[in-house]
Amino acid sequence: EDLNYDVGDALGLWPINDVDDVQEILSAAGFSGDETVVLRFGPATLRAALMSNLDLVTVTPPTHEAWGTTASEDDVHVIDLVRSGIEGLTPQLLADGLRPLQPRLYSISSSPKKHPGEVHLTVGEVHYDLHGTPRKGLASTYLGGRLAPGGTVGVYVQKSAHFHLPEDDTTPVIMIGPGTGIAPFRAFLEEREVRAAPGDNWLFFGDQHEATDFLYEETIAGWQDTGLLTRTSLAWS
Fold first, then answer.
1. Which residues contact 185 (CB under 8 A, 6 or more apart)?
2. What is the DSSP letter of 181?
3. Per DSSP, what are the bridge partners of residue 105?
4. Rounded to an integer, what distance in angstroms lies between the CA atom of residue 32 and that of residue 29?
5. How crowded is residue 29: how many other Cβ atoms within 10 Å of its Cβ?
6. What are the φ and ψ backbone dihedral angles of 74, each rounded to 5 degrees?
7. Burial readout 116-138 (b: 16 or more C-beta within 10 A, e: otherwise)
8. Do 11 and 121 form a contact (C-beta atoms < 8 A)?
């Protein structure tokens, strides 16, 4: 019951850091991970804190204040600072300079009326290069590769106050959702389908390559065939 949601709501997800990223920071700092640090909730091993409780990417002003560092670039990451050397760094000081790991919000891409007991997400894994080094998104790669089928993950429903379908099913709806931004509108259309809403539906969708990035292509084609989608506008960059 605590996961009851409506279309337009988001799912908050608590990711876990990549074990390789944790080891990379430990090695750069010269720690084993068995050291004890004190967090807001109490003591933990440094490795456990880095795995589940601390943000291993984001550098904040309190990070620089705690470590006595500066950065010439706005997009510097935690590992960059640790590799550059931090004077007097201890396990506790390392933990003190990291902000708490934050949940990630994903638009829910399913209608509870069509998929009772389920919640669907539309996730694109984030991979990029920064200063010549491969980097990746934490939560997207956690869902895409590190969270095994049948595994468990901490989630909660983030209710939306204003982003919902109109109560009047005859009201026409225009939906603009490029890339994974189509997520909530897949939920909207499933909801309109289940409710047999007579209002017109116009979907704008686009991405880079039609051959590889046409998310829910068969579903959208089916909605066009049934008339649920009154109009569909596509664009490929």
1. 175, 177, 203
2. G
3. 12
4. 9
5. 20
6. -75, -25
7. eeebbbbbeeeeeeeeeeeebbb
8. yes
Q: Where are the alpha helices (DSSP H) in the chain?
A: 19-29, 46-52, 61-67, 78-84, 91-96, 138-141, 183-194, 210-213, 217-226
User: Rounded to 5 degrees, what angle do the CA atoms 213, 111, 125 make?
Assistant: 30
Write the CB contacts of 198 (distance below 8 Å, at least 6 apart in sequence).
169, 170
Q: What is the C-alpha separation between 201 and 159, in angstroms, rounded? A: 24
Which candidate, 26, 21, 83, 15, places its Cα nearest to that of 52? 15
- Rounded CA separation 37/204 (Å): 50
Q: What are phi and psi of 216, to 5 degrees?
A: 60, 35
Category of 115 on φ-ψ map: left (φ > 0), alpha (ψ -120 to 50) or beta: beta
Q: Token pair for residue 121?
A: 């997400």
* pLDDT tens-place values along the chain, 237 residues long: 668 999 999 999 999 999 999 999 999 999 999 999 999 999 999 999 999 999 999 999 999 999 999 876 678 899 999 999 999 999 999 999 999 999 999 999 999 999 999 999 999 999 998 878 888 999 999 999 999 999 999 999 999 999 999 999 999 999 999 999 999 999 999 999 999 999 999 999 999 999 999 999 999 999 999 999 999 999 999
Report the candidate in 220, 169, 221, 209 with the shortest Cα–Cα distance to residue 191.
169
Tokens 């490029």 correspond to 178
Could you give the 3-state DSSP secondary structure of residue 131?
coil
